[in-house]
Design a protein that fits this description.
Layout (H helix, E strand, L loop, with lengths): L4 H16 L5 H6 L5 E8 L3 E2 L3 H11 L4 E4 L6 E2 L3 E9 H31 L6 E3 L9 H10 L13 E3 L1 H6 L4 H11 L6 E5 L2 H7 L6 E5 L3 H11 L4 E5 L7 H6 L4 E3 L2 H4 L6 E4 L1
Parallel strand pairs: 6-11, 7-8, 8-9, 9-10, 10-11
Antiparallel strand pairs: 1-5, 1-12, 2-4, 3-5
Helix pairs in contact: 1-3, 1-4, 3-4, 4-5
Length: about 280
């Protein structure tokens, strides 16, 4: 995925508006002459995987069209603590007014990229791939899914509009009849749309295993039950595992033979990377 100039402008301009509103940076206006220039470095204060640098550059450029930014790293790069990511030289008021917006984007997205990289590295010896979910910060889904890619993961659907996914509540709304639910979805969908079905038991899987859907999501299955489900599917569908997966359980799940492991925690609760501006 590439973040287009339109996407960068849209997200960054809204973030700056949130911080500056109509009056701007009162502290910078009060303490710094309007023509003062300033040079700083953006620094990763801890090791991690970097993401969001284009957003940071855009924040500085939107407040000072003559600003000079020297990139010292790229999104997706693994860095050690103390690595300079970019140097910024320009109007001091503009730099300090854009500082928090730029750091918020880089810190948050780098945290997601780093957590994804950690999980991807744990299962690199298997065929399984890490993917994210729709458990994203409202309004930031495109950026957070981009960060997952920067960390070596893959994207799940972007919304309810681009794929069909039958979950437990869809089945519950059909009085618990998983087969009827899947058959209704198959009759509705077009050939351009993938259909994924979540099952939480071998009984549910056996009830639909002859139907021509695309992806089976094995929810909260572990150990012998998970391996039995993979054996029953026997290549009929893409297999996704999900539900409460963490660093302690992910290797065993990947080694069971699933194709995808989806983790809401990648975007929902990854800690931000500590990033700062140093004079």
């Amino acid at each position: 995925m590439i973040l287009s100039s339109n996407i960068l402008y849209d997200y960054v301009s809204r973030a700056l508006q949130e911080d500056l509103a109509e009056r701007g940076d009162l502290t910078a206006q009060a303490t710094i002459d309007e023509n003062t220039t300033f040079e700083v470095s953006m620094n990763a204060r801890e090791a991690g995987t970097i993401c969001g640098l284009d957003l940071a550059v855009t924040a500085f450029e939107l407040l000072d069209e003559n600003i000079a930014v020297t990139r010292l790293a790229e999104d997706g790069a693994k860095v050690i603590a103390g690595t300079d990511l970019m140097r910024i030289k320009g109007n001091a008021r503009a730099i300090l007014s854009a500082e928090r917006t730029a750091l918020n984007f880089v810190g948050h997205l780098s945290g997601i990229a780093g957590e994804t990289r950690k999980m991807a590295d744990l299962i690199a010896h298997t065929e399984a791939k890490i993917c994210c979910t729709r458990k994203t910060t409202p309004g930031l889904r495109v950026l957070e899914k981009y960060a997952v890619q920067c960390g070596g993961g893959q994207n799940h659907r972007f919304g309810l509009y681009d794929a069909m996914m039958i979950k437990d509540n869809h089945i519950a709304a059909n009085k618990g009849d998983v087969r009827k639910t899947v058959e209704r979805a198959l009759a509705y969908k077009s050939h351009m749309v993938k259909l994924e079905v979540e099952v939480d038991s071998l009984e549910q899987l056996e009830a639909i295993i002859d139907l021509p859907f695309d992806i089976a999501l094995l929810d909260n299955m572990r150990g012998a039950e998970l391996r039995r489900a993979v054996s029953l599917i026997d290549g009929r569908f893409v297999i996704e595992a999900s539900g409460g997966i963490n660093a302690d359980t992910i290797v065993d799940i990947a080694e069971a033979g699933v194709n995808l492991i989806s983790m809401g925690r990648l975007t929902q609760s990854a800690p931000s990377l500590d990033v700062g501006l140093d004079y």
